[in-house]
Write a structure and sequence with these properties.
Blueprint (H helix, E strand, L loop, with lengths): L2 H9 L11 H7 L6 E5 L5 H8 L3 E6 L2 H9 L8 E5 L12 E7 L10 H9 E12 L6 H6 L8 H7 L4 E10 L12 E9 L2
Parallel strand pairs: 1-2, 1-4, 2-3, 4-5
Antiparallel strand pairs: 5-7, 6-7
């Protein structure tokens, strides 16, 4: 899943996603005080826009130039609050200890033996900050989806929780019903969610 794959995916439709912020983000972040946020795999920008309109200063990153341009075009009312960035986090890690919130919603984070990309995301969380990572529950995958997508190739929230040291506290690590309808053409009814706070 490289830049060309995602550019082609976004180019195939005028709007790929719903335009609404992800329900996990809304549930878990509404009560947090605004600060600096990193939106990992921002897509068309719904999460970044929601955060910015709630007072967050957002760095929104996606590997797809098409997605970033589309998101920026929808953000004219709060353009000073979002930095839209086309980047591959595998080669360009975010700055360390820079974000009060690092949010990765349904982001396909590929497993690596040295966990380098994941470590980069964890390191980006400032002391006192929050990591929020959500995926579709694996039990909801259809046989067709499992043929096209091997979940074992990607980090799941529980994998990440197991890699956190005593500098973190896990606040949420659970599978629960979705708060919004499943994406068109899918059968996703539950989310698996990790929310952790960096202590130091």
């Amino acid at each position: 899943m490289d830049t060309q794959f995602w550019d082609d995916m976004y180019r195939s439709r005028d709007q790929l996603f719903s335009g609404s912020p992800n329900g996990v983000l809304v549930t878990e972040v509404t009560d947090l005080p605004p600060g600096q946020a990193l939106d990992v795999g921002c897509g068309e920008g719904a999460d970044a826009l929601w955060l910015a309109r709630r007072g967050w200063q957002v760095t929104a990153v996606d590997i797809s130039r098409i997605a970033v341009e589309r998101a920026a075009a929808a953000a004219t009312d709060i353009e000073s609050r979002v930095a839209w960035t086309r980047a591959d986090l595998a080669s360009t890690p975010p700055p360390a200890a820079a974000f009060d919130l690092v949010s990765a919603q349904y982001f396909p984070l590929k497993r690596q033996p040295d966990h380098s990309v994941l470590r980069g995301l964890l390191d980006a969380v400032a002391p006192g900050g929050t990591l929020l990572f959500a995926t579709h529950a694996l039990a909801d995958l259809t046989p067709d989806q499992e043929r096209d997508f091997n979940p074992g190739d990607y980090y799941q929230p529980d994998d990440i929780a197991g890699l956190l040291d005593d500098g973190w506290t896990v606040l949420v690590n659970e599978t629960r019903p979705r708060t919004a309808p499943a994406p068109a053409g899918t059968h996703h009814t539950r989310d698996t969610v990790l929310r952790a706070r960096r202590l130091r």
